[in-house]
Structure formats: C-alpha cells, structure tokens
Amino acid sequence: MFPLSFDVNGEVVEVPVTALLNGGYAGRSQEDVAAHVAELAELGVPAPTKTPCLYPVAPYLAMQADEVPAQHERTSGEAEWALVVAGPEERDVLLTVACDHTDRALEVHGVAWSKQAGPDVLGRKAWRLVDVADRIDELTLTAWADGEVIQRGTLAELLTPQFWLDDLRERGLLKPGTVLLSGTIPMDAAVDQFAGSWRVELGDPKTGDVIACEYRVSRMPEPVE
C-alpha cells in the first residue's frame, strides 16, 4: 500500500492509509441536508434512514491523483475536507482538501456501493488541525466542474472536525492511518456535474493560504464481453 504524502508547512508527512471513511448527509443545517437529499432524489437515490451517515471505503481508494478513470459518463466529484490521522498526538491530526468522486449511476442502487466505485482524491498539502481549529468555520470550500463554480461555501455548513474526531474515538478508529472525508455542501444545479475535470480548494481567509486538489476524468474503454 502506497502512503499518502503531505507537505505540512514544509515538512513531508507520509501516512499509510489503514481506514478510509466517507461522511454523508453531514450538513450542520438540516435545511442543507434536506436540500442534498432532494438533489440526490432527483437522480433516484433513496433517502437515508438517519443522518449523518458514515460509509467505510476501501483504503486503497484514497489517492493523490491527477486523473480519475471512469467507466461511464455519469460520475462526478464532491467538494469536501478530510481529516488525516498521521500519528498518536493531537498535533498529528491533519486537515486537507478532498474530492469524493462518485458513480452516480450506481448511487441509485446504494450510496455505499457508489463510494467504492471511485477514488477519494486528496490534496498534496495539509494543515495541522490545531493550527486552524480556532477559525474552522471561516475556512472556505470551493469546487469547479470544467472551470465553472459548482460548489462554494464555508466549513460552517458542515459538521465540525471535532464532531468526527469524537465519533471516530467512540468507534475505536481514532488511530494513525485513518482518513475521514467530511461530506459535501450543496451543488449549483445549473452547472453540469458530469464534467471532464474537477478542482476543489480549501482556503484560509486569515492567511490567504489555499490547499487544492485537481484532476481530469478519463473514460475507460468499453468492456469486451
């Protein structure tokens, strides 16, 4: 298993991923959660029985990639932040940007299945969570699909990193090698999500610092069967 590698204030931190989890329906505002449920319902995705959700994903799907192969044209990303547990101490919890690339055609049969059909693309830079914890709600999250802004908001719209750290601790998963993605913010329905390229940025208005991940989507050859 290849480790993820992060630039943390000039220090290279490598993290072999042992557990990968995707949060879902994780908005702090129930109105935003309902909007996301309605957005997915238009694609035929059944509503969850409870929120937030947590989907375990195969660890090898955590990638720092420039290209995502797709089996068909109905796949798309989601702007998210990610927690990366890089060691045993509080200062070892990293915060970075992520894009959960999801198979929307498979999603109508099961959200958990769809999460296994595409990678979680993470940024190559990260911040220590303790360094930004006092202004977590001010951090921004923006996504572009084929160069058009499709998602824009702040981390105040999502459940906090501390919420998920507490949840991981209760589940016995708060240990080195665990990566958790936050869930996403609403999309602009006027922008085509089935794009050939995605870019997501996590920004800190106080410092002007930005962490980005960006990739193109490539169609795989048709199966021979």
TrEMBL record:
The lineage of its organism: Bacteria, Bacillati, Actinomycetota, Actinomycetes, Pseudonocardiales. InterPro entries: DUF2848, Fumarylacetoacetase_C_sf. This is 2-keto-4-pentenoate hydratase/2-oxohepta-3-ene-1,7-dioic acid hydratase (Catechol pathway). One of its GO terms (molecular function) is catalytic activity. It comes from the Bacteria. It comes from Saccharopolyspora shandongensis. It holds the Pfam family DUF2848.
